[in-house]
Amino acid sequence: MTIALPKGFRFAGVHCGIKQAAGVKDMSLIVSDQPATAAGVYTQNLVFAAPVQIDRSRTPMADARFVVVNSGNANACTGPRGLADAQTMLSVAADACGCSPSQGLVMSTGVIGVFLPMEKIAAGTTAAAQSLGDDEAAFLAASDGVLTTDSSRKIAARSLAVQDSEIRLVGMAKGAGMIGPHMATMLCVIATDAALEPADAQAMLRSAVEVSFNCISVEGHTSTNDTVLLLANGAATGKPLTGSDREAFQAALVETCTEMARMIPSDGEGATHLITIDVCGAASTSDARRIAKAIAESALVKTAVAGADPNWGRIVSAAGYAGAKFDPARVDLHINDHLIYQQGSPAEFEAKVVSRSIRGQHETFLRLDLNAGDANLRFWTSDLTVDYIKFNSEYTT
Amino acid sequence: MTIALPKGFRFAGVHCGIKQAAGVKDMSLIVSDQPATAAGVYTQNLVFAAPVQIDRSRTPMADARFVVVNSGNANACTGPRGLADAQTMLSVAADACGCSPSQGLVMSTGVIGVFLPMEKIAAGTTAAAQSLGDDEAAFLAASDGVLTTDSSRKIAARSLAVQDSEIRLVGMAKGAGMIGPHMATMLCVIATDAALEPADAQAMLRSAVEVSFNCISVEGHTSTNDTVLLLANGAATGKPLTGSDREAFQAALVETCTEMARMIPSDGEGATHLITIDVCGAASTSDARRIAKAIAESALVKTAVAGADPNWGRIVSAAGYAGAKFDPARVDLHINDHLIYQQGSPAEFEAKVVSRSIRGQHETFLRLDLNAGDANLRFWTSDLTVDYIKFNSEYTT
């Protein structure tokens, strides 16, 4: 495929040696040639990494020029030295890009509690600045530089016509483990050549994250580093978007975020199934979210799907402890369009048929109808397999 | 060992065929020869099983005569038919014991969403009534009849001298999966020959559960059936306990509950480690509980312990998303007495030494000092292994 990149951005991704494996990219740089509006949504973990501390204090902002990212080390739980290291990353990148450190944003992802190897970071940042490009190869290199345990690249792109111009959005994301939905749940940068006011960009990004990155979970462990950034440099449209143009942009932003968000549990560590959970007829969206999250994070639900086992009592009981209000006697449950549970009692279904529908497909669909109100929410998670356990038992030592 | 059984109780455990394997006990009966005070603590799951509905409406009560229990089928999510089946269980047991159905309590555990095989249940109840005994063999048979995926029996006993009499407590518990700490988390019956007023028995049991069964988790999935019952028949002491006698009894009750509670994650499905989590210096007990629960239920913490990996960033970050208040810069963490993290920065420690201390022992000790207040809480969980996943992927089909 050919990705239509937004105007006025350059990208780079390089290997600087934070990751052991030769040639695997571990530093990325995204540069806007002109000052861009930047918005950010961050982890709600009380224990947040140094880069989150810096970016959160800066966004929304009107004059962003670059985002510098390293993978392989999260620079989290590293105290005052970690904060100084993140500031040094910004200074080195600013020097290399010819702008001020205050015009930069920084992201890190990887192991927690280890100090950054600053010599490698500095050399990598300089090398990245020298290899910046505005072509697809450069964008893909940057997209690869943010990955950690991901088995595949996570990118999305949209184009739309507004104000007689074509606006483009591209996004790159990472995430496969330590994914819980109390925040942005991973790293993501979205670049667009639309023009947006800072406060409006922030509102639009928050709204898009709420129905995308905040609707996924791998194991519910909220990370210290989760960050979604939106850079809007206005290179395609001079004036900030308003009215129906703004609405069209917001829809494209939601699509971009949702496309990348789904990729994260789909590529969850060891995952063999992407599970889509529709909670329908809840009394409120927050009730629907609580229930979806409880189902998504139940090890018993996730292992059942991994085993293609329509063990639906685990789904209904997870809804029951979510802290939402509903009448169990009015609940219906469908698994892959098979009615399993109706008005609080078991329905007649062929367990083997349902099991085959799970086993044969990468995607499993659960739909819980509460008949308690009008709120609906869609949520995504991965199944839980032996490979997840093997992987996470052997991660650092 | 010889278990000192309380006076005036008889026990039985039999195989009636709910479980497939020949000879494996699946029905138990506990009978008090005289009316006993009964207290109960139950699951807080909105989706609760028929037996929970009945027992919750009856306790605390003054005239309990029996508890009838089946394993292998939870009688949960079974609608009105499930409720009728639980009432039939009580009627059959009451007939067999020569008392009224209203004097009974009922518990079920096993697969959710399948109707009870009532012919087997009726035959089993009658057989159990015929084999009631007041000796250790009968008690052990009853203890076995409540088990499901447990790999070992869970019992505890205490004796204490009060009012010139010896009072005895014995408890039997089950639980290895679907263990979350929002309630009693499993099935347990404690029998004592002390005399207690119903309201006082209820208060004492609730208080004991709060620091024992409500401080454990295997995977945080709150079950539909969790029930802890206390039967106090007064056969040893005529008058209800007061003053220092009551205090001594409460201490023994807490010890009994704690001893059994610890056995549950220690025997968690596939578990190779019992993890003890001490959260110290929290601003409140509820904050300490939130943090302990988040750590206990983090798949990343649990897989790290399974892999003997001192990946402490997972522990600190779990504390951070628990919803409690503390200053990350004041936190210390010890793993098996090794100082790992001090005042918000990494401490100097030998990862290999810490790893060996985890690998070599069944028990792992985590201690998080928040330095935020005076509240302390001890919590227990199991590690998360490949065998847990294998087991739970293949449970019903």
Automatic annotation (TrEMBL), chains A, B:
Heterotetramer of two alpha and two beta chains. The record marks 184-185 as: Cleavage. InterPro entries: Arg_biosynth_ArgJ, ArgJ-like_dom_sf, ArgJ_beta_C. Pathway: Amino-acid biosynthesis; L-arginine biosynthesis; N(2)-acetyl-L-ornithine from L-glutamate: step 1/4; Amino-acid biosynthesis; L-arginine biosynthesis; L-ornithine and N-acetyl-L-glutamate from L-glutamate and N(2)-acetyl-L-ornithine (cyclic): step 1/1. It comes from Lignipirellula cremea. Catalyzes two activities which are involved in the cyclic version of arginine biosynthesis: the synthesis of N-acetylglutamate from glutamate and acetyl-CoA as the acetyl donor, and of ornithine by transacetylation between N(2)-acetylornithine and glutamate. GO terms for biological process: L-arginine biosynthetic process; ornithine biosynthetic process. SUPFAM superfamilies: DmpA/ArgJ-like. Keywords: Acyltransferase, Amino-acid biosynthesis, Arginine biosynthesis, Autocatalytic cleavage, Cytoplasm, Multifunctional enzyme, Transferase. PANTHER family: ARGININE BIOSYNTHESIS BIFUNCTIONAL PROTEIN ARGJ, ARGININE BIOSYNTHESIS BIFUNCTIONAL PROTEIN ARGJ, MITOCHONDRIAL. Pfam families: ArgJ. This is Arginine biosynthesis bifunctional protein ArgJ. One of its GO terms (molecular function) is L-glutamate N-acetyltransferase activity, acting on acetyl-L-ornithine as donor. The active site is at residue 185. Belongs to the ArgJ family. Substrate binds at residues 148, 174, 185, 269, 392, 397. The record marks 109-110 as: Involved in the stabilization of negative charge on the oxyanion by the formation of the oxyanion hole. One of its GO terms (cellular component) is cytoplasm. Its EC number is 2.3.1.35, 2.3.1.1. It is found in: Cytoplasm. HAMAP family: ArgJ (MF_01106). It catalyses: L-glutamate + acetyl-CoA = N-acetyl-L-glutamate + CoA + H(+); N(2)-acetyl-L-ornithine + L-glutamate = N-acetyl-L-glutamate + L-ornithine. It is an enzyme of class 2 (transferase).
